[in-house]
Amino acid sequence: MIARLLAVLLFCALAASARAQTRFEELVPRLGAGFGPAAEAVQALGAQGDPRALPILRALSDGRLLRNAEGRVILDGRDAATGEAIPAEGASRINLNNRLRVVLRGAIGRLALSSPNAAERRAAADAVFRTRSAENVPLLEDALSNESIPEIRALMELALGASRLLVDDVTVQRAGIIVLGGAGTPEARALLLEARAAKPELAPDIDAAVATIDRRLAIRRAFETVFQGLSLGSVLLLAALGLAITFGVMGVINMAHGEMVMIGAYTTFMVQEALRHTAWAGWSLPLSVPAAFIVTALVGVVLERCLIRHLYGRPLETLLLTFGIGMMLQQAVRLIFGAQNREVLSPAWMQGTLLLPGGLPVTANRLWIIVFGLAVLAVTMLAIRFTRFGLEMRAVVQNRRIAATMGIRTGWVDAATFAFGSGLAGLAGVALSQIDNVSPNLGTGYIIDSFMVVVFGGVGSLVGTLVGALTLGLVNKLLEPYAGAVLAKVAVLVGIMLFIQRRPKGLFALKGRAAE
Amino acid sequence: MRRLIILGIALLLALLPALNLTGLGISDFVVTVVGKWLCYAILALSIDLAWGYAGILSLGHGAFFALGGYAMGMHLMRLIGPRGSYGHPVLPDFMVFLGYQELPWFWWGFQSFPFAMLMALLIPGALAFLVGYLAFRSRITGVYLSILTQALTYALMLAFFRNDMGLGGNNGFTDFKELLGLPLNTPLARALLFWASLAALCGCLWLGTSIARSKLGRVLVGVRDGEARLRFLGYDTLQHKLFVFVLSAMMAGIAGALYVPQVGIINPSEFSPGNSLEAVVWVAFGGRGTLVGAVLGAFTVNALKTWLTSVAPDVWLFVLGAVFVAVTLLLPRGLIGLLEKRR
Questions:
Q1: What is the pLDDT of residues B165-220, one digit of tens each?
Q2: How far apart are the CA of B113 and the nearest CA of chain A, in angstroms?
C-alpha cells in the first residue's frame, strides 16, 4: 500500500519536473530581480509544485538567499538554479517586502503539500489553511487525491473548503461550504459564520452546513462523555469486583482493599523495573497481570489465615481490623518506596488516540482498561459458575454447615475466596497504574466509591456490580459539565443514600434463602 | 467509688492550667495538648453513646465534630473584623481575596456568640436527624450504616475543599484573634478554654451515664442486641435510635467548637474518613459501652500519638494499625475490660 503510494508520488513529482524543466531555471534568477518580478516568480514556482523550489523559497523567507552582481541567485555557495559552485564574494542578501512575504508563505505551503514527508504535509496543510486564497484550490484538490493519512486529509479538506469560499464562482463556493460542513470541526464552523456575514446570498447553504456541524459536534460531545463515563465505570468495576467477592460473598468488610489495589500497582512498577534493559521490557505490563494477582492473593491468604478468620460473623470488628491492616500496609510501602509518585510507563500499543469511524476520538489506554475490566468480570463470572472452586464457594455462601457436612473444607474455601478477591484488587492496581499516580495512597481515593458501587448494585451480585459501576461512572461524567467534578461526586453520594431508601438491598438484591 | 475516682481525676486535671497560670512548672504546650485531648474525649464519648449502647457504628462522627468546629470558626473569623491583613471591616481575608462584595447569607448572625454556639449544636444535630431518619427508617443497620456515614463525611470533605463554598476552601479558617473579648494567645484564655472543655466533658459524661442508667438506656441496649425483638415488643426503635444519634452528633459538635479555638485552625481535612475511624478506635481501645472507657481510650491513644509522633514519626502509623488489630482480636472489651478482669 505504502509502496504503491510512494510510487504514485514519485511519478507525479517526475512528471511535474519534466514539464517545468525549462521554466525552473528561468524563474529562479528572477527572485533577485526586485520585489515585483520576485513575487511573480514565487507564485509561479509555487504553482508548478517542483520540490526543488522548496528549499530555495525557504531560504528566501529566512533571508539566507544571496544575489551577486551578475544577477545569479546563490544558496549555500551554489547557484540556486543550476547547482554549480560559485563564490559568494560581493553577493548581497535578497530583501523581502510584506507582499512578497505573504506570497512566499502560500507558495511554501503549497509546495510542502506534495512533500513525501507526512509531518511536512501536515504543517503545510495548516499553513495553506491560514493563508487561504482561491489559487490554492487546484493544488489542494491534487494533494487530496494523493493523500492517504486521515488526519492530514481532514486538514486539507478544511483548507480546501476555506479556499473554495474565496473563488469567485457561486457553485464552487457552495461546494466549499459542503466540504466545510463535512469537516465538522469548530474551526470550520467559525469560518462558515465569518463567510455568512460577508456573503448574505449564501446564507441558506451556510446555515444548513452549520447545522450539520453542530449536530456532529453534539454527537461527538455526547460520545466523549459516554466514553469517559464508561472508562470511569470500568475503573470502578475493577476496583469493586474484588470487594464484591469479599464483602458480598463472605460478608467481610475489607477496608484494606484499597491497599491491595495499591500493592498491585506497585507490583506493576517492580515488574517494570526488573525487566528494564532486558529483551522482555516491552512485555512488562502483560506480565504484571499474573504477577500482581499472585502477590496480592498471597497477601490476602496471609491476612485471612492469621487475622480475619478469627472475626467471622462480626463485621464491625472486621472493618476496624482491616482498616488497621490497611494503615500498616500503606505505611510499609511508604517507608520502602518513599512517598513520592512512581512512574509506570505505558507500552506503545497503549499510547495515543484512536479515531473511530465518524472522527470520534478514543484514548487507547482508556479503551484497553474498559476491555480489561470486562474481561476480568467475564473470567470471574466463569470461574464462579464453572469451576470446582466456584461451586464450593457458592455452596458455602448458601449454607456453610451443610456444605461442611458434604465434605467441603469451608476454611480452605474462605481463604481461597479472600485470596481471589484480593487478587482481583491487584488486577485493578495494574490497570490504575496506567491512568493514576502510583503512590502509597493510591487506593484510598477509590475505596469509598467502590463500596458505593457494591451497595448500589446489590451485595453478592456480580451483575449488580457491573451495572452499579457503569451507572456511577456515567452519572458522574454526565453531571460533571453542569456541576463540576466535586459536586458531581457529592451529588452521586447523596443520590445513592436516597436510592437506598427505596431499595435497601441494592439494585440486584438476592432473593429467597440466599438473601440471609 | 468509681464516681469518686472520676471526680478526683477531673480535679487533678483542672489543676493543670492553674499551675500554668501561677508559673509552677506546667508549660503552655501541656495545657494546649491536654485541652485538645479533652475535646477528643468528648468526641469519643459521643461515639460510645451511639455505638456502645445503641449499636450504631458511625464512621462519620468526625463530620459532626468538624461542623461544630466550623460554626465556632465562623464566629472567630467574624471577630477578627478589620484586623485581617486586607483590613476589610466585615469580610474575612479569604473572601476579600476571592473577590466577594458582601457577606454570604449563611454567615449572617455568626458575629453573635450565642448564635454561633447554637449553630454548633443545631447544624450537626440537624444533619444527624436527616441522615439518621433516612437510614433508620429504611432499616439500614450495621456495616451498611457505617459505610453510608463514611461516605457522608467523605462527601462533606470534598464539598468543603471547594473555594466557592464560601467557607475558606482548603485553607479553612485560621489566624483567630479573640473570643468573648479575650485575646486567644494568652495563658488565661487557654486556661478558660481548658476548664470549659473539662466542664463539657464532665457534663457529657454525666448526661451519658444518666441516659445509660435510665429506661431509655435499657431500651437502647435492647436495640443493639435484638432490634427486631424489641420492635415486636412494641417499642418504636426508630425514635430511640434517632434520639441517641442526634444527641451524640450534638456532643460531637460541642467538642469541635471547643477544639477549634484551642488549636487555632479548622480546615476540611478534619472531615477526612480516617479521622472518624481513629476516633472509633479510641472508643474500642478504651472499652465500648462503658463511657468512661471511651474517655480513657481517647486519652491513652492520643497520649501515645503525641509521644510517638515526636519520637519516631515513621512508627506511629504502625502502632496505630497494631492498636486496631490488637483491640479487635485480643481486647474485645478494651482497657476497661482488662482493668476489671484484674480486680
A1: 778 888 888 888 888 878 888 888 888 888 899 999 999 999 999 998 998 888 88
A2: 31
- On whether residue B11 sits in a domain, the answer given is no
Question: DSSP 3-state assignment of B305?
Answer: helix
Helical segments of A338-443, H only? 364-386, 388-398, 400-405, 410-435
CA distances (Å), A305 to each of A241, A324, A418, B76, in order?
21, 16, 10, 52
The domain tally of chain B equals 1
Q: Report the range of poorest mean pLDDT among A148-162, A390-404, B24-38, B314-328.
A: A148-162
Q: Does B187 reside within a domain?
A: yes
Indicate the helix (H) or strand (E) that contains B14.
helix B2-21
Query: Which residue from A331, A452, A489 is facing B158, i.e. has the nearest CB?
Result: A489
Q: Helices (DSSP H) in A31-83: which residue ranges?
A: 35-48, 53-62
Nearest Cα neighbor of A257 from A319, A191, A204, A198 is A319
ipTM above 0.95, yes or no: no
SS3 A86: coil
Smallest CA–CA distance from B146 into chain A, residue: A316
- Reference B66, options B259, B201, B242; nearest CA is B259
Contact yes or no for A317 and B161 at CB 8 A? no
d(Cα A432, Cα A436) in Å, to the nearest integer?
A: 6
Nearest C-alpha in A relative to B135: A501
C-alpha cell at B325: 488489630
Sign of the Cα pseudo-torsion (A346, A351, A356, A359, in order): positive
A73, containing H or E segment: strand A73-75
For the cut 50, the answer to whether the pLDDT of residue B124 exceeds it is yes
Which burial class, exposed, middle or buried, applies to A233 when counting CB atoms under 10 A from its CB (0-12, 13-18, 19+)? Answer: buried
Separation of alpha carbons A504 and B72, rounded Å: 36
Contact assignment for A494 to B155 by CB distance below 8 Å: yes
Give the max Cα distance, chain B: 65
Domain membership of residue A168 (yes or no) is: no
CB contact under 8 A, B284 and A320: yes
* A324 min Cα distance to partner chain B (Å): 4
Instruction: Say how far residue B203 (Cα) sits from the centre of its chain.
Output: 14
Q: State the DSSP string of B151-198.
A: HHHHHHHHHHH-GGGSS-GGG-EE---EETTEETTSHHHHHHHHHHHH
What three-state secondary structure class fits B275? helix
- Residue A103's domain comprises 1-116
Question: Is A355 strand, coil or helix?
Answer: strand
Q: What is the DSSP string of A275-326?
A: HTTSTTGGGHHHHHHHHHHHHHHHHHHHHHHHTGGGGTT-HHHHHHHHHHHH
> Cell 494567645 belongs to which residue?
B185
| Cα distance between residue B277 and residue B47, in whole Å | 11
- Inter-chain CB proximity B324 and A324 less than 8 Å: yes
Note whether residue B317 is domain-resident.
no
Task: Indicate the SS3 state at residue A413.
Answer: helix
**How far is Cα A116 from Cα A14, in angstroms, rounded to an integer?**
13
* A83 phi-psi bin (left φ>0, alpha ψ -120 to 50, beta other): left
- Interacting residues of B293 by C-beta distance below 8 A, sequence separation 6+: B48, B283, B286, B287, B334, B335, B336
**Domain final residue pick, A82, A99, A116:** A116
In a domain? residue A136: no
Count interface pairs A-B at CB distance under 8 A. Answer: 110
- Strand arrangement, sheet containing A66-67: A78-79, A73-75, A66-67, A92-93
What domain count does chain A have?
2
A318·B137 Cβ contact <8 A: no
Q: Please check whether residue A320 touches B, CB under 8 A.
A: yes
Query: Could you tell me if residue A364 is inside a domain?
Result: yes
Residue with cell 464562482: A169
Per-residue pLDDT of B37-62, as tens digits, reads 999 999 999 999 999 898 888 888 99
| In a domain? residue B64 | yes
